[in-house]
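User: quick one, fold this
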Amino acid sequence: MPSEISSVQPKTRSARARYRSLTRFTARFGVSVLLVWLLFKSIPVLDVLDLLKPKLIPFVVASLLMYLVAQALCALKWKIIAESLLPGIRYGLGLYVILYYIGMFFSMFLPTTVGGDVARVWYFSARTGKVKESAASVFLERATGGFGLLSVLGVAYLLTDAEVLASLPLVGGLLQNKAMAVLVGMLGVVGVLVFGLLGKRLRWLEGMSGSLAPLLWAYAFSLVFYAGFGFAHYLLGVGLGLHVGFLYYVFFVALVSLVSMLPVTVSGIGLREGGYVLCLRAAGVPLNSATALSLLWLLVLLLGASIGGILYLAGFGRTEDGRIESGLRQR
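Assistant:
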């Protein structure tokens, strides 16, 4: 009898966990739908669609390529961190890029962006046989990306025109304080130093940082990544004929990326698009053009994630699959 009760309890807990997960997803999906509806209810949709013409295709392709290159750069910094945590284990950059693209697919089409990180840990640890170190490498790659985001945001914030900052809804007055820009930028540097110098001494970070040098390299690549991220948006703006400076793209893309991390929507949908429209409107961009750019960027994200989906369905990155090429094997 006790054995029967004990076998029922795990099933009950599992059912409850699935219910909670479904409830959270439903709530986030509802918030995304609500935000998208609020965005489009006051926008002349036909005016927006009129801007989305075939002449934009080269700009969308260029933006997509820039986005894929930027994500490949993230895969490179993941490789640097992973090799510091897993001495003696070496894989070609191609494996990291493929797994990163597969992670993009899961992040875009699962309820939360964490899903992509879980997929990366799953496939990478299956190959290395070391779950803790594999998870730590993904965690630190994400962490250095967050620190780079803060530093880029701080610098771009410092260089952005004060009048534009003042025009931003809700946070305009707060963002006019340039001292805050310096503080935000320095938080990124401090974060890397804390992880790199104290990682071996703090119990909750034990085993999560091999040395300072790999984290500094990863942090530096994160700065380049966000510059490339901003440039991918800039290309779409050029295609739409927007007169917005490159640095402002870097600023508001970093700002909206930070806000989109809030776990209240599905993959940031709704928060991201609304944030883009608000920031572009503050820079004097017409409502229909701002909305068109947000939709074009969503298209770029979907196309990029689809490439990861194709790689996943084709079996790349799986240790049990025979189609892993020699360039992706351990060296």
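User: anything notable?
Assistant: The chain is about 75% helix and 0% strand.
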